[in-house]
Design a protein that fits this description.
The structure is a single chain. The chain is of the alpha+beta class. 44% of the residues lie in helices and 25% in strands. It has a 5-stranded parallel beta sheet, sandwiched between helices. A 5-stranded antiparallel beta sheet has the order 7-6-10-9-8, with helices on both faces. A 5-stranded antiparallel beta sheet has the order 12-11-15-14-13, sandwiched between helices. The longest helix has 46 residues. The two termini are 69 Å apart.
Length: 757
């Protein structure tokens, strides 16, 4: 991409003669030369101009070249501008290395060699212009990448021979649930159903430049979705676009299913328009009324309605047309052969495009036989009343026979069926099922296509050899009297985790007579743990970014604000100077926040080095450090503190944070008082830091230890909102806990617990 603008060079030197000499030396039609005779002017120019190269004199008054370069390199806009340092005197190695550390790419030593100077400048300008061109291209590529990753469709590149996914966008995760890392370098066929694998492999052998097809694909949670693929074949790659059409397929499936149900239903199902003309007629209607579909669509619904029911039916149709649903009305109909039958009539409106009411869907069930049967049953009931005494006697005898077994089974079955998310079963010493719940029955059927039953051997129901061997081994261990828990993993591509408890069953004499097995799916918990590990990695990455990307801009803000204050402080009014100081204050405040965040994030990686802590010495040392850095009039009383076990540096940080908080929030009371004490328990020590300051509302106590969660505004009390989060993380890392109690304007009490050993 050819640049339209000329290359811009900034020459900085406090001597006019040197500026003129360099201008004459470097002047060219394809360049713009800018001059500055001090560091402050150079900084102002770089902020307002697009500079391609800076030639910077080292020995300048007020602000030397090294200081100017340091500020330039800390600014996002100017950090990549190449700098050539110019020096007339100092040429020693140490001096030159300092220049390179501050970002120099080369040195000019005075007096200059004109040819060498021109050549160096030409090369650096060419490199810088090429770099800018590359940045512009990368920006264009980033925009394209953003468009791809924000697409609702899956977009990617797949190797046409191996089907390995080389590149894929975020929609793959959104639609299917897999991480990008799980997808890349994995063959597409692993995600497909067996049937669709064959289809895709056949398509790859075709010599077409464009392919379009549909596949079923397994999501991470093992559900199945439908994708519509459009593929461009080029350079032995598939450039793919895949759209989720699962909902469309489901609608089609439901529609086809309903069509099949309607067609095969034993009920008469038909549709007629507002005038009664029959539009459709199913097999059930043919069976009930005797008219074929071909005959029915040529006639009117009034052909099957008795004349004495016409007025009633017209009234019903008017109600249906006014959007009232009719359900199971008993009425009569006439068949093709003139037979009068009893039916249950249901009807509802069908709305077509535009919401216009066009037709009525009708369902009619022949209940003639049922009516006759009901009448016979009534008569039988009358007859049975005469023999009720005999029936009661028989029932009583049957109940006595079955009573004991029934009570036992019902009690056990009712207990285990209440657990719908846990697989439960019991086997005897011969591994035969004694009882199981519905969740286990379904899981076994899905896993092994085997239906379990009471008395069946567990070993016969598990078709996988390795699973059978593992189940037997675990049951044997429980049959020996040992209860135990196992972690079991299933699945090849996607892993599912089960935590299974095997418990022996004892009889009244203490003999083991069987095993009860309870298995809970803990896949979500395991995946949450994996996600937590991933989040920790992201936190470390964030910490690195904070350390290297935020500190430099803050230094630049502070530096430029200082320059503004020095150069224009006498021009600005009081409000302008106040705002300028606010900028510098907030830059320093942001720096403190960065320090706190870095401390918080590093705690996750820090290994504990535990020693026996002399807490009185530790607290006194922390107070000494606070008194050096903080002016306050609080009285701090330290009672005898019991020893505990912990990492000295981390527990010192806890004490400093809690003590500084107690002092800070007590500054607005007349006589601020902070008391530090401890209480020894059998295995731990509880430390208490109590103040008489601002306190807090206990309704919001759960927010105290969250990052950026503050119960007071920064106008009331300064702070970053990270200190207590650091405290909680350190104490949790020690296996202890921290909590707080308080009341508004009556002080706060913070307590933390540490193990003695």
């Amino acid at each position: 991409m050819k640049r339209k603008n000329k290359a811009t060079i900034l020459i900085v030197d406090d001597k006019p003669a040197n500026l003129l000499a360099l201008e004459n030396l470097l002047e060219s039609d394809d360049r713009v030369l800018l001059m500055a005779n001090n560091g402050k002017d150079a900084l102002k120019i770089t902020l307002n101009k697009d500079i391609d190269l800076i030639i910077l004199d080292v020995q300048m008054p007020d602000m030397d070249g090294f200081e100017v370069a340091q500020i330039l390199k800390s600014n996002k806009k100017t950090k990549d501008i190449p700098i050539i340092f110019a020096s007339a005197e100092r040429k020693e190695h140490k001096f030159m290395m300092k220049g390179y550390e501050e970002g120099a790419v080369d040195y000019f030593f005075k007096p200059l060699d004109p040819e060498i100077a021109r050549a160096k400048v030409a090369v650096l300008i060419q490199v810088q212009l090429q770099k800018k061109e590359l940045i512009e291209k990368n920006l264009s590529l980033e925009k394209s990448a953003l468009l791809i990753n924000n697409s609702a469709d899956i977009i990617g590149i797949i190797d046409a021979a191996s089907f390995k996914i080389e590149e894929i966008n975020q929609a793959f995760t959104t639609i299917l649930g897999y991480n990008i890392s799980e997808a890349k370098e994995t063959s597409l066929v692993f995600f497909l159903s067996n049937e669709d694998r064959i289809i895709v492999q056949k398509l790859s052998k075709q010599s077409k430049e464009r392919l379009s097809f549909e596949t079923r694909i397994y999501c991470k949670d093992r559900s199945i979705k439908w994708l519509q693929w459009n593929v461009v074949v080029k350079y032995n790659k598939w450039f793919v676009n895949a759209r989720d059409i699962t909902e469309i397929k489901q609608v089609e499936r439901i529609r086809n299913y309903l069509a099949t149900v309607v067609k095969q239903s034993n009920d008469a199902i038909y549709i007629h328009d507002k005038e009664g003309k029959i539009i459709s007629w199913n097999e059930g209607a043919e069976e009930i009324y005797g008219y074929t579909e071909k005959e029915a669509v040529k006639m009117n619904m009034w052909n099957i309605i008795p004349e004495f029911h016409r007025v009633q039916t017209e009234d019903i149709i008017d109600k249906v047309l006014s959007d009232k649903k009719i359900q199971d009305i008993k009425t009569k109909r006439i068949t093709k052969h003139g037979k009068l039958i009893d039916v249950l009539f249901s009807a509802s409106i069908i709305l077509e495009s535009g919401g216009e009411k066009k037709s009525i869907a009708v369902t009619e069930r022949d209940v003639t036989l049922q009516k006759i049967t009901d009448e016979k049953i009534k008569q039988l009931n009358v007859d049975l009343q005469d023999n009720v005494g005999k029936l009661e006697t028989v029932n009583k005898e049957l109940e006595e026979i079955a009573e004991n077994q029934k009570i036992q089974n019902s009690l056990l079955q009712s207990t285990i069926t209440s657990y719908k998310d846990i697989l439960i079963f019991s086997v005897d010493k011969e591994y035969c099922y004694m009882v199981f719940n519905e969740a286990f029955r379904l899981a076994t059927f899905q896993a092994y296509n085997s239906e379990v039953s009471i008395g069946m051997s567990m070993l016969d129901s598990i078709t996988d050899k390795d699973d059978r061997k593992k189940a037997k081994s675990n049951c044997d261990k429980a049959l020996s009297g040992e209860a135990h828990v196992t972690l079991e993993i299933y699945g090849d591509l996607i892993h599912y985790y089960y935590e299974t408890r095997y418990s022996p069953i004892f009889d009244g004499k203490g003999e083991v007579i069987g095993v009860t097995v309870m298995s809970a799916n803990i896949t979500e918990r395991k995946r949450a743990e994996e996600q937590l590990l991933e989040l920790n990695k992201e936190l470390e990455s964030f910490s690195y970014s904070v350390s290297h990307d935020l500190r430099a801009p803050l230094r630049a803000i502070d530096g430029y604000a200082g320059i503004l204050g020095e150069d224009y402080g006498n021009i600005l009014d009081d409000e302008g100077n106040r705002l300028l100081k606010a900028v510098q204050y907030n830059a320093k405040k942001m720096g403190n926040l960065i320090d706190d965040l870095l401390t918080f994030s590093r705690l996750g990686k820090k290994e504990l080095t535990k020693t026996i802590l002399n807490m009185n010495e530790l607290v006194e040392g922390a107070l000494y450090e606070l008194n050096k850095s903080t002016k306050h009039n609080a009285i701090v009383k330290i009672k005898h503190l019991h020893k505990a076990s912990g990492d000295y540096g981390l527990i010192n940080q806890v004490v400093i944070n809690l003590l500084s908080n107690a002092i800070k929030y007590s500054t607005k009371v007349g006589k601020p008082l902070v008391v530090i004490s401890s209480e020894e328990m059998p295995a731990e020590v509880i430390y208490t830091i109590k103040d008489n300051g601002a306190g807090f509302d206990m309704r919001f106590a759960n927010k105290l230890f969250g990052v950026f969660q503050r119960l007071h505004t920064s106008d009331e009390f300064e702070g970053t909102g990270v200190g207590l989060a650091i405290v909680q993380r350190i104490i949790a890392k020690h296996g202890g806990k921290v909590w707080a109690e308080g009341e508004v304007n009556k002080g706060a009490t913070f307590k933390f617990l540490l193990p003695i050993n």
